[in-house]
């Protein structure tokens, strides 16, 4: 809640300084208790909090079309632009190790060696797939820890229904669900957004082969995103945006596969083998991303920077 307080206060002040009379109509704004606290704790121990209702906005669970994808990209970019001058060290790291891809790879290796549920023999193609792509794991995190990429305030849960759009114009309005906001690199948001929003088949695609990166959706997201962030991102950050889609997709596939090996201990499943199926969907998606990488990179390079 301290993170949420810091971020919402900063965004409200930025919007107010830009001339917006009532930022609570356009951005998540906390309602404080009578004793000036951001949350209320009942005698039972339950916590409650309240935000001003944003009447002008709505959300969708999946991308509707390329125009919507553009606004999703804009929404994430708008959020990052509003917190670009917020020192990341003012926030707590509420999710230690989140998006640390090498750690997820190590956890997968541990689960594969232990093979507690006797499932390793049935995932030979997936094991080979991971082995061929091990070099992907450290690419982003090494740059982050070495200072090659600037640490910024990022959202960390950039799914489509966390980007609110206006009911009347369908333009991006704000980002919701700020509980995951913490220090990181912008690629965590961009890569995860494209991974989830530009795959029309979804994470639970009935047929893994139907998973694919839809280039028109990627291009729309990237264009909207860079419209809002091109003015403050470094050249290196922009250059690595396509790579982030590969790394984050690989990471989620690893997490699903490791959880399958451990007996589905983390992700909620609906049927036996659900996590293995999810891993296969992500790995198939990654193959289509790899096939489109040259076009993705070319598109990013040609976009005008604002």
Task: Describe the structure in your own words.
By secondary structure, the protein is mainly alpha-helical. The chain contains 10 helices and 7 strands. It has a 3-stranded antiparallel beta sheet. A two-stranded antiparallel sheet has the order 1-2. The protein has a two-stranded antiparallel ribbon with strand order 4-7. Helix 3 packs parallel to helix 9 and helix 6 (186-197) packs antiparallel against helix 7. It is globular and about 60 Å long.
User: In the CATH classification, which architecture of the largest domain applies?
Assistant: Alpha-Beta Complex
CATH topology-level fold name of the largest domain: Aminoglycoside 3'-phosphotransferase, Chain: A, domain 2
Number-wise, the strands total 7
Going across the biggest sheet, name each strand in turn.
3-5-6
Output the CATH class name of the largest domain: Alpha Beta
Could you list the spans in which at least 5 consecutive residues all have pLDDT below 50? Answer: none
Q: Could you say which overall geometry the principal axes of the C-alpha atoms support?
A: globular
Structural class: mainly alpha
What is the number of independent domains?
2
In terms of DSSP E residues, the strand content is 5-15%
Q: How many helix segments?
A: 10
Helix proportion range:
40-55%
Q: Give me the strand/helix succession.
A: HEEEHHHHEEEEHHHHH
């Amino acid at each position: 809640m301290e993170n949420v307080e810091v971020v919402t206060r900063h965004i409200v002040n930025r919007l107010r300084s830009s001339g917006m009379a009532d930022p609570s109509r356009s951005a998540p704004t906390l309602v404080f208790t009578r004793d000036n606290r951001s949350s209320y704790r009942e005698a039972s121990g339950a916590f409650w909090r309240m935000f001003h209702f944003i009447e002008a906005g709505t959300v969708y669970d999946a991308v509707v079309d390329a125009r919507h994808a553009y606004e999703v990209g804009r929404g994430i970019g708008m959020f990052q632009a509003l917190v670009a001058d917020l020192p990341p060290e003012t926030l707590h790291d509420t999710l230690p190790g989140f998006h640390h891809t090498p750690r997820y790879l190590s956890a997968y290796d541990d689960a594969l060696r232990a093979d507690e549920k006797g499932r390793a023999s049935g995932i030979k193609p997936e094991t080979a797939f991971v082995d061929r792509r091990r070099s992907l794991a450290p690419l982003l995190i090494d740059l982050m820890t070495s200072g090659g990429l600037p640490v910024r305030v990022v959202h960390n849960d950039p799914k489509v229904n966390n980007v609110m759009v206006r009911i009347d114009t369908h333009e991006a309005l704000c980002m919701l669900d700020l509980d995951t906001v913490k220090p990181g690199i912008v690629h965590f948001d961009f890569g995860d957004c494209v991974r989830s929003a530009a795959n029309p088949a979804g994470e639970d695609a009935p047929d893994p082969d139907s998973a694919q990166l839809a280039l028109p959706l990627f291009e729309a997201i990237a264009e909207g995103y860079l419209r809002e962030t091109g003015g403050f991102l470094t050249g290196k950050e922009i250059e690595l945006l396509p790579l982030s889609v590969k790394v984050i997709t690989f990471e989620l596939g690893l997490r699903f596969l490791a959880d399958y090996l451990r007996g589905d201990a983390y992700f909620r499943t609906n049927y036996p083998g659900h996590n293995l199926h999810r891993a296969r969907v992500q790995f198939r998606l990654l193959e289509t991303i790899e096939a489109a990488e040259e076009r993705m990179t070319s598109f990013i390079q040609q976009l005008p920077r604002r």
